[in-house]
Design goal:
The structure is a homodimer. The first copy, chain A, is about 55% helix and about 10% strand. Chain A is α+β, with helices and mostly antiparallel strands and about 200 residues long. A four-stranded mixed beta sheet of chain A has the order 2-1-3-4, sandwiched between helices. In chain A, helix 2 packs antiparallel against helix 7 and helix 2 runs parallel beside helix 11. The N terminus of chain A is likely disordered. The interface between A and B is medium-sized, with 22 and 22 residues.
């Protein structure tokens, strides 16, 4: 029983430009720890997935009523959660470099870095597409910024992000956040509890 | 205090072709009763709203990965809720006549009729666009079928459905189910509890 739980894991598929990934990123480690399961952080890019659907922008920009509602809903969710929220002056922001840097920290500081990027983007209206903003985030977390950002340009890291995005498509993922637990797909911050219960085989 | 609660209400905006409106329709009266609030059933049509966004079909058909996930998600939700589910052989079904008939029963049997239409569409794979299927539903509910269906063709009823759809757009509604509670908009079956709490001013 303990062995099974120690082995149980949930894959957290997220994109730094995705608004509802923010509360999920802030909540997932505590919920998973309480359930005795491990989180595998899997950043990917929604851009290619949206482009394949004919969208050249976020659906929240393409469909204004949906976008207005989403910002209001996100304000309510973050207020209830007690995490900072400020509607970003630019949306969506370029998430490519942040996703690559996150992969440099895989198995190590990826979760701390990812949460900090979300807070910067949706809590502090900072330009997470800028290398300087990412360097500042890394430094605040006591992660060597220069080497992490340099490592993010390595072909293996670029390939890893492409592979993640391809794997997301192959798994039927069409939006973020998504969770994969024992081959079952769950979409949206609202499904996090259910996905964790499924991962824990409850 | 009791007066305030007796006056509190929630508007339930739904469309008979909308999959996630099904669990919301099955749940809302019990949840509202427990919170001491009244439900105002407001059927409307998503067709004109989707058409204005450039969609000529359900987004669940236009975006197949999203559609495949939705059916799996709905199967999980209905199983957890203990209501029948069978993936309809046709989707979306024409909901125009059902919505008009529902409005004939406004303030009376609209909630019973609406739940039965959802069960027929998503639990029994029945053709809710057919007058004969609607007549059968009405008869099972001991509602005079012939007169209800005849009344649905009255200009006032047709106008009422158009007015509901216009009012939905004016309220910022872009999908179903939606809930309006004290001028706050909530979208999706997942937000029903939050909407009811807001309506009850908790």
């Amino acid at each position: 029983m303990e062995d099974r739980l120690a082995d149980a894991s949930i894959e957290f598929w997220y994109e730094f430009a995705s608004t509802y990934s923010y509360p999920a990123a802030m909540r997932i480690e505590a919920l998973a720890a309480a359930a005795g399961i491990r989180v595998v952080w899997r950043p990917f890019l929604l851009g290619p997935i949206f482009a394949a659907q004919g969208w050249r922008d976020s659906p929240f920009n393409l469909y204004p009523a949906k976008g207005r509602y989403m910002w209001r809903d996100l304000a309510r969710i973050t207020a209830a959660l007690g995490v900072p929220f400020r509607q970003p002056s630019r949306f969506p922001r370029n998430s490519l470099l942040a996703a690559r840097v996150a992969l440099v920290g895989e198995g190590d500081w990826i979760h701390r870095f990812s949460r900090a990027v979300y807070v910067a983007n949706f809590g502090e209206d900072r330009e997470i597409g800028d290398p300087s903003a990412l360097a500042e985030i890394l430094e605040r977390l006591s992660i060597p910024a220069e080497s992490a950002i340099a490592a993010a340009a390595a072909p293996e890291i670029k390939q890893k992000l492409k592979d993640n995005t391809d794997a997301a498509i192959a798994a039927g993922i069409f939006g973020a956040p998504s969770f994969l637990a024992r081959e079952e797909l769950f979409w949206g911050n609202d499904r996090l509890e259910e996905a964790i219960a499924h991962a824990a085989n409850r």
